[in-house]
Amino acid sequence: ITTPGSRLLFPELSKPTKTVQASRVPAAHTAGLTMPRRTTTRAQDRTRRIQREREREYP
Fold first, then answer.
1. Count of the separate structural domains present in the chain
2. pLDDT of residue 34
């Protein structure tokens, strides 16, 4: 079995930890936690941004 070299410098950090006890069952996944859907396509959004930029540069 190998041990890390830091065990010599920091022996207090080499102590094993306790096992984690789960306090409760994780909540069920709900539909409200999903990512929001786009209202416009990427192509429409890109076209609109280009058009706005052109309107600002060449009024």
1. 1
2. 74
